[in-house]
Amino acid sequence: MSSTAVTTGTWALDPSHTEIGFTVRHLVSKVRGKFETFEGTITSADDVTASSVNVSIDLASVNTGTADRDAHLRSGDFFNAEENPKMTFVSTSIVEKGEGEFVVTGDLTIKGVTKSVDLATEFLGEGGDPWGGTRVGLEASTTISRKEFGIDFNIPVDGADKLMIGDKITINIVAEAVLQA
């Protein structure tokens, strides 16, 4: 079995061993956060490029470690989580770039806006767990423009030349998924 060969079937993300996080520029530093509630499946095929990924993230579950900031992110200034409760990713293609390295392209939808994004993805391996299950591990990342998804709230600082929050959001995913029976 090559390092990219995967047992075919449907895999469910294990929320206890998966993190969907982000980083954004704030003034002269960066703020990191993650989403606590999500679900997703990976459907693997004999030809890995025929596989698919489908993930749904609860935007109200955002956690940056600061309650006031998290409440602001849920508000209409950012996610408007009450009216747009989910962020989704549905793959449209998977291209192998090298041994264990892939680009997973898909439609990312935030606040009703859908854009195609590329996730640089590394397959970390497949193996058994102590409970008789089979797991796969993956890491993926991409950078998006929050303004392209209608998330453009900001505050000018030091005059009108600088803004408090950067436009580029780096999304980092470390995932473990369990093969479903």
Automatic annotation (TrEMBL):
Residues 10-178 form the Lipid/polyisoprenoid-binding YceI-like domain. SMART domains: YceI (SM00867). InterPro entries: Lipid/polyisoprenoid-bd_YceI (IPR007372), TTHA0802/YceI-like_sf (IPR036761). It comes from the Bacteria. Belongs to the UPF0312 family. This is Polyisoprenoid-binding protein. The lineage of its organism: Bacteria, Bacillati, Actinomycetota, Actinomycetes, Propionibacteriales.
